[in-house]
Amino acid sequence: MVHTGNCTVIPDQTATDAGVAGAGVLLSFIITNFLSILLSGIIILLGLRKSTSAPICRKLLLSFSDQQIITGIGIQAVGLAQMKTMVPYHFFIIWMLSLLSTATNLATLLALVNDFKRDWVMRWLRQFFMFVNMLLGIVLGVFILKSVMMDLEPRLPIGCVWEVESKPAPSNATISVIGTIAVIAGNVIVFILSTWYLHYRKNPKWLKSVQVCGLIVLVAIGVGATVRVVLLSQAFGSPPESIRLQGLGERDWGFGQLLTLLLLILPVISTIEIIRGETRIPPSQVDNDMTLFSDGELALKPQKDFQPNPLWGSQSSLFKR
């Protein structure tokens, strides 16, 4: 029996949804998050040693990050669009994948903040995606929190949290409620801090410490979300028996599952083109590098490392410092 959005009749079984919880989809988010954090760590480490700007790693990281944040926003939008038919189990998996997307985006911001500062279009485009991702994550978190607090029947659609009568919460719900609230609050706090970090005009001495500490926190978030998804999903773990998934569709490999993994090859192809010299990108200037190339010669004058938004100029900016 498949869900039809009816909140009065509890289905006997839950239909699988490989589009949001299939093996290929989960692996795509997990692999992209792992590679992005690894590349961010390499870039930050090389920046500490001041040995190279790592242009290849920067390009590859930016490609993975752009792909991850778009797919993260997309899968959250799908979850909200299907809230009248999607059960809390799939909704929670989407929420965990959104955390992986957020961790990937923040790791990229930590490593490539100077690149974003030098181009106001990239900076505000990144800001827009960060805002949309945070907003969707909060909405999903509110649905999850509501379903836990009212002990929603796991085979009913998540949208029924606003229609059915609440039941006494189970004894172990306190930890889940606290954890959900902490994640929602963390999304807001991290968004505020990352916005300030992105638009801060100077490169303070403590920038490297923030990068290292932030990367450690993001590694913990990525590992925690990955472990939770792997253990909970049908594709790799064991979902709760109360969900009663119909069939093993989330473990099957079809074209849609392979496509999500094949898309990971595109950033690698771009990197190969850069290595072969077909595409060139400017070197990174970190720690207020005072040199630039002008007419083929090295000129000793300051490089402008923060490009203000020309639409309203630097005088009216909220982030002068």
3D architecture notes:
The chain is mainly alpha-helical. It is 59% helix and 4% strand. The strands form 2 sheets. Strands 1-2 form a two-stranded parallel ribbon. Helix 2 (23-49) packs parallel to helix 4 (88-117), helix 2 (23-49) runs antiparallel to helix 7 and helix 4 packs antiparallel against helix 7. It starts with 13 loop residues before the first strand and ends in a 21-residue tail after the last strand.
Summarize the structure.
The chain has 321 residues and is mainly alpha-helical. It contains 9 helices and 4 strands. InterPro entries: Elsinochrome_Biosynth-Asso.
The helix tally amounts to 9
Low-confidence stretches: 286-303, 314-321
**Coarse shape:** globular
Residues in helices, as a percent range: 55-70%
Helix-strand string: EHHHHHHHEHHEE
Q: How many structural domains does the protein architecture include?
A: 1
Mean pLDDT: 80
Question: From the helix content, strand content and strand pairing, which structural class follows?
Answer: mainly alpha
Global Rg: 22 Å
Main sheet: which strands, in order across? 1-2
